[in-house]
Amino acid sequence: MKTLRPPALPEEATEDEITAAALQYVRKVSGFRAPAAHNREVFDRAVAEITASTARLLSGLDVRGGPARREPVGR
């Protein structure tokens, strides 16, 4: 997984990058690259929740010497 905050990522992480990281996390934790149809809803819900949590985390971090905090993605 790549780091999504400055200075590791010079620009702000995009919503697509945050969602991709959430998907990678859910795949790793669940052990499924793609869920079976009967697990699709819980899989997708986990990706959405982790995406939102990650956006909140990134917007709340105080990175010393970095750019000012921003509004979370999707607001």
Strand segment tally: 0
| Uncertain stretches | none
- Write down the overall mean pLDDT: 85
The first-to-last residue Cα distance is 25 Å
Radius of gyration: 14 Å
Order of helices and strands: HH
Overall outline: elongated
Structural class: mainly alpha
How many helical elements?
2
| Major sheet summary line | none
Beta-strand content: under 5%
Q: Helicity level, as a percent range?
A: 40-55%
Give a description of the structure:
- This protein is mainly alpha-helical and about 80 residues long.
- The chain is built from 2 helices and no strands.
- About 10% of the residues are buried.
Write the layout of secondary structure elements.
Elements: H1 15-30, H2 40-60
Helix pairs in contact: 1-2
In short:
The protein is mostly helical and 75 residues long.
